[in-house]
Write a structure and sequence with these properties.
With 311 residues, the chain is α+β, with helices and mostly antiparallel strands. The chain is built from 10 helices and 14 strands. The two termini are 19 Å apart.
Length: 311
């Protein structure tokens, strides 16, 4: 259960925001590593995965290993290798399920024949074929929900891709944003509303601060509306000077001020100034927070709102 929203601001900038909550069985955890940088130098990507946490971690680690040895040529290559590794891992899981449960290799399942201990080729019984089909379908159903949104940085452009376990070919996203995860309906609604208000000329030159605000609020709304989404937002930014992960303290403060603005505790110009400093500036978090409360209307009510469970 998660939501990950990404946005391309212009040819050099973009951002990706995820909630931090994850579910393992009946446990709710708040330390999932959902955003990962793949590649170094001028060509790299920030990827965010939704689905089975261990499967996503496995794919991310293999991606890191691959591109630590093989420098990325472009972001499209990163997206393609991501999809390829997901497909390899999916097949490995299906193989393991078949051999563990029935003692039959995947190649035998595909051919419909296996070998006896004497080496004789014999057809697989129909009841075993039905059981194998059920095993494969169950494994694929669990794996197919795994998806990566990929914010790629090339030398001359920023691009968005999506790779999922049900498709060997990644998708190049034509719109300026992408949303994946169980909370995508609520998050998508917020971002679409933001995009629709932009003039056509600004769709390829979005104000980074306004874009990050929309991503943060989209994540917040998803956490309100969708079970299993929540925690402090995780914010990864591609800026003109490079990519950086926003600290947890700054991310929490950014979330608070965006929520405060939406509830009319902060004016628009104040929010933009504070958010700019929080994400891109060097001023201490405590000093920015003091500024926020000094500028807030109905300060005590604002504090009560932030400490309550109201949205």
């Amino acid at each position: 259960m998660t939501v990950i929203s990404s946005m391309r601001f212009n040819s050099q900038e973009g951002a990706i925001v995820a909630d931090e909550q994850s579910t393992y069985g009946n446990r709710k955890l708040s330390f999932a590593d959902k955003l990962v940088r793949i590649g170094n130098g001028e060509t790299y990507a920030i990827i965010g995965g939704t689905g089975h946490a261990d499967f996503l971690f496995n794919v991310s680690e293999r991606l890191r290993d691959y591109f630590n040895i093989n420098p990325a040529q472009n972001s499209e290559q990163i997206a393609e290798i991501t999809a390829r590794i997901m497909d390899v891992r999916k097949l490995a899981i299906v193989r393991g399920e078949l051999e563990s449960n029935l003692g039959i290799r995947y190649e035998e399942f595909i051919s419909g024949h296996c070998r006896s201990e004497e080496g004789q080729v014999i057809p697989i019984r129909q009841d075993l074929i039905e059981r194998m089909n059920n095993i494969q379908n169950q494994a694929n159903a669990q794996i197919s929900n795994n998806t990566f949104t990929i914010l790629g940085k090339d030398k001359d452009n920023v691009r968005l891709y999506r790779a999922d376990a049900s498709n060997l070919v990644p998708t190049l996203i034509g719109r300026p944003y992408d949303v994946v995860g169980s909370g995508n309906d609520s998050a998508d609604e917020v971002i679409v509303e933001f995009i629709e208000k932009l003039e056509r000329e600004k769709l390829k030159n979005i104000d980074p601060v306004e874009g990050i605000e929309a991503l943060i609020y989209a994540t917040h709304r998803a956490s309100v509306r969708n079970q299993g989404v929540g925690g402090t937002p995780v914010i990864y930014v591609i800026g003109k000077e490079g990519a950086f992960l926003v600290s947890e303290a700054r991310s929490q403060l950014a979330d608070n001020m965006v929520r405060g603005y939406r509830r009319e505790f902060l004016d628009r110009d104040v929010l933009k100034m504070l958010l700019q400093e929080t994400i891109y500036g060097e001023k201490e978090v405590d000093d920015i927070e003091d500024q926020m409360f000094e500028a807030a209307k109905k300060g005590r009510e604002f504090v009560r709102y932030l400490t309550s469970k109201k949205s």
